[in-house]
Amino acid sequence: MKKLIFRKFILDHTKFLFSSLIIMSVIIWTIQAVNFFDFVTEDGHGLKVYFFYTILNFPKITHRILPFIYFISLFYIIRQYEIKNEINIFWINGISKLKLAKELVFYSFIIMVFQILIGSSISPKFQNDARSYLKNSNVDFFTSLLKQGKFINITKGLTIFINKKNKDGTYSEIFLEDSLSNSSKMIYAKKAILIDDANIKVLQLFNGKVINKNLSKVNIFEFEKIDFNLNNLVSNTITVPKIQEMKTSHLISCFVDNIKKKIEFVVDCNKDIKTEIKQELIKRLVKPIYIPLITLLCCYQFLYSRFKTNFNKKINYIFFANFLLILLSEVSLRYSSKSNITTFLYLLIPFVLYVIFYLIFSAKSKNA
C-alpha cells in the first residue's frame, strides 16, 4: 500500500514536470527561433537551414530550465496534495514526514542523472550537429539580400554594393570586391542582371572594368559582359565549434592535458581556455547536484499544516529559499572556475547545505 501511494505521487509529479518542461521549452524555443531568423534575413541561409538549426538547439533549452521547472512542479504538487488533504494519506498509512522526504530525495537523483545526461551528452551533440549543418550549408537566400545603397558582405571574402535597383529587376552601378582566392579582384559595372534558379545563381555584369591584384602586379581590363558565379558562396556565420558544443570526453582530455590526435576539434588548451572548459564541465557534471537539495527544501512544506495561521507565510519562505538556492547555483557557477578554492567551495556548498537542512528537517519532523 505504501509503495502504491508513493508511486501515485511520483507519477503525478512526473507527468506535471515533463508536460511543464515541454511547454516552457517550446515557448522559449519559439522566442529564440525569432532571434535565429537573422540566419535568413542577414546571413542568407535558407529556411531549411534555419528550421533544422533551431530544432537542434531545443535540448540546450531543456537543459537550462530543467532545475527551475523541477522546483516549480514539485512545489506545486506538494501544495496541491496539502490543499486536497491527499497528503494525509501518507501519515495515516504510517509514512513519516522524514521517510517521505528521503523517498523524494532518492527520486530526485533520477532527475539529477537525467539532467547530467542532457548536459553532458545530448545537448552538446545536438549543438555540434547544428553548427556542422551551418558549416556545410550554402547561402540560399543570397539573392533576396541584394538591396540598393547598401554594402552586402554576408559571404566570406565578397562585398557587393548596388547603387540602384530598377523596376525591371536589373541593377545599376554595381561594385564588387572579391578576395575569395589568393588574389583580390575589384569589379565595377554599369548594369547587372541576376539569374537565380534551382541550378545556377549568376550575376551578369555589363559595361565595366575589372581590377586584378596579384602580389605586386595589377591588371585592369574592360568588358562588355561577364558572369559572376554566386553558387557555393560561404556565409559569414561562425562555424567554429564552441566549448559548449564539444564532447564531454574531449573537454576532460583537454583539461587534463591529454589531447589525442584523433580528436576532431583543434583546441589550444592554454590557461585561459582551460578556465572556460573547467566551468563548462562544472555546469554539465556538478551543477545538477543542487536538485536533491531543492527537493529537500520543497519537503519542508510537510512540516506545516494549512490550518495554522502562519501557514501561507511559511510556504512563501520555502518558495523564496528555493528560488535563492537556484539563483545561488547560477551566480556562483560564474566564479567556480576562477581558482581551485572557488571550485572546492562550489562543490562543498551544496553538501554542507544539504546536511544542515536535513538535520533541521529531521529535528522538526519529530515535533510536527
Distance between the first and last residues' Cα: 24 Å
Mean pLDDT: 80
Strand content: 15-25%
Question: Major sheet, described briefly?
Answer: 6 strands, antiparallel
Radius of gyration: 29 Å
Query: What's the helix count?
Result: 11
Task: Output the structural class.
Answer: alpha+beta
Helix and strand sequence = HHHHHHEEEEEEHHHHH
Low-confidence stretches: 259-266
Domain count: 2
Which strand order spans the largest sheet, edge to edge or round the barrel?
1-2-3-4-5-6
Shape: elongated
- Total strands: the figure is 6
Helix content: 40-55%
Explain what the structure shows.
By secondary structure, the protein is an alpha+beta fold. 55% of the residues lie in helices and 17% in strands. The chain has two domains: 2-137 and 240-367, no CATH class; 145-229, no CATH class. It contains eleven helices and six strands. Strands 1-2-3-4-5-6 form a six-stranded antiparallel sheet, with no helix packed on it. Strand 1 and strand 2 form a beta hairpin. Helix 1 crosses helix 4 (58-83). The two termini are 24 Å apart.
Key traits:
368 residues, single chain, 6 strands, 2 domains, 6-stranded antiparallel sheet, 11 helices, elongated, alpha+beta
In short:
With 368 residues, this protein is an alpha+beta fold. The protein has helices at residues 2-36, 38-41, 47-56, 58-83, 88-92, 97-135, 248-255, 271-285, 290-298, 311-333, 340-367; strands at 150-155, 158-165, 171-178, 184-196, 201-214, 217-229. It contains 11 helices and 6 strands.
